[in-house]
Structures are given as structure tokens and as C-alpha cells.
Amino acid sequence: MGHSERRFALRDRTRANHEKLETAIGAFENLAAYRRYVTFLGRFRFAMDRVLHDVVWPRDWSWRPTAVSDSIAQDAKDLGLRVTA
User: Could you give the C-alpha distances from 73 to 17, 20, 22, 81, in angstroms and in order?
Assistant: First the structure.
């Protein structure tokens, strides 16, 4: 199975979970909703990015998870939030 085929297979297998997550998060109807999202996402991603930073990935893997903690931290700062893991 090629790289692209795996991506679409993974997307199809996780579609229901992503839909549940999107329903739980809700729409960003206002600034308060986005602030809540950044706060909770930051708690999750800061911890996850810290753990994944130290993972030794197989050399032949071209994929690595994308760390987004710095971007979330900047959003939090812009919103006047203090987000901790």
C-alpha cells in the first residue's frame, strides 16, 4: 500500500471519530468559543508534543507528527490566555 493509499485508508477508518470530535468542539461562533478551544487544545497538545519530541522514529519513515504547541501558545498569548499542559 502506497503512502497516499494509507493516508486515505486512515482517514476513512477515523472519519466517525473525527466527526464526533468536531461535534464536541462545536463551531467557533464567537471569541469565547475560540478561547475555550485554544485552552483545551493547548492542554492536550502541549503534553502530546512534549512526549513525541523524544520519540526515536524509524529512519525509513518520512512522516513525523507536526508539533503545534508553539502556534497554540502564540494564539493563547494573543488572546490573553495562560495555557498549561
Answer: 26, 25, 21, 9
CB 43 within 8 A of CB 76: no
Query: Which DSSP letter does residue 56 get?
Result: -
Overall pTM > 0.85: no
Whether residue 45 contacts residue 72, with contact meaning beta carbons closer than 8 Å, is answered with yes
- Of the CA atoms within 13 Å of residue 1, those in its CB half-sphere come to 7
Q: In this predicted model, what pLDDT tens digit does every residue of 37-71 receive, in sequence order?
A: 899 889 889 999 999 989 998 999 888 888 999 99
